[in-house]
Write a structure and sequence with these properties.
There is one protein chain. Helices cover 40% and strands 15% of the residues. The chain is of the alpha/beta class. Helix 11 packs across helix 15. It is elongated and about 80 Å long.
Length: 462
Amino acid sequence: MPLSSAQVVTIALYGEPDVGRKTFMSAVDGRTYFRRSDGNIFTFKCLLGAAQTEASIALLLIDASNLGTIQAARSNIRLAKNASSLCSILFTKIDLVPMDSLDMRYRYLWFERDLSFHYDADTLSANLLDPHSVDRMIAKLARVSLDLSAIGIRLLDAVLNWVASCFALPLPPSTIPDAPELDALVTDRDVSVLVNEAVGWDEELKKRLHAEDAEGVGVHRITSSLLAKIPASSSERASMEYVRQHTSIPIPRTYHPQLSWLLMDFIDGDMLLECWPKQSRFMQFRIACTLRLYVQQLHSLKRDTVGTVDSNHVCGIFFQEEVLPSLHSMRQFKRFCDMVALEGWKIVARRNQSAGVALPPVPTLPSNWTPTFIHGDLNASNVLLDKQGVLWLLDWGTAGFYPPCLEALSMQFVEGELNADLIPPSWTRYRRFIAGNITTEDRDYWMHVYTAIHRFHAYSRS
């Protein structure tokens, strides 16, 4: 492949005196970088930024060892953002930050994430006197993103999907008659009367879920063919209709959208939580194949923003409750989560420090943040095998567009942390096949988010 001609990238440098602007110019000005992902060549030209400067990239330099300059940085960043739509923040003198001090390390890391969130700017760090550190910084500026391992992963996924399609369970009939009782259910009061009469079925369901001590189960069989549920979120009905329109996944039909109650078909069958051990190994494999294809269908649905189907609200297991819709862009969501993960890391780090245990690694951003439609609670109690051998997905209260790794992480969290005694090992072995692999870094990152998210519900409104 012929090499392209070099593109000149102008970098305007902003910052207070002694933050390293001249050192940056000495290290980077005139440097040429070859980006292997697409064959592009870049030559960097550096200049000191001013009020009317225009540049390819605006870079605000902050002395990481003297965070007292943060307030001055807040005024400089406005100049930097006016100079270029590509504005980043570079923390210099990173080698002078006493990383063995938990408080100093956290303070630096917090400022890094706080500035990134509030000013919508990427952050970098470098020791400008270290050639290797400078090389890594230049690579990030050039947006090097090729991951050759992804090619092999896609090929393996294609093979596994083909295997799954050969053994998947059948779909239900295309036409199922509506419940005849629907005409008599006009108001919420009509439904409530039937709910109050459904005590026997409610108690039976609690036993099936091993939740005898729970006050209620949230879902009620009000007639021979209908269930009534108070939706787990305002978007649950919207998620179910969205999935029905865009996939072939069997889910109960919903009725009477004008009601507060969520009315849906009753599916006669057994939850995998109760029937999985009774299945043959071959049938267990077929169930796993079917679920893999369901997840693939869900994950093929993407959009530009994060949140529930009908809004930008963020909810789900790792967020504990809804976050107000101030996180309108995926970038803002990612930066918000990075602040939360750091706070969760600090909580664990302080606990480890008190116990004389080594500090955990600082959380690193997951690689895939594409807003992808996920079920969000795909545990064995939300999958039902009916009498005809059709597999149904239930409980869409936490569904929405989120980073795809949260599908597998939610399965692992609910089944491993909350219901470990009820889940047979033969089911957990299929989790990776069904919902995808989870890296240790991704798991640690989102567990840190879960640990600290309760501290940020007010913060997300700012």
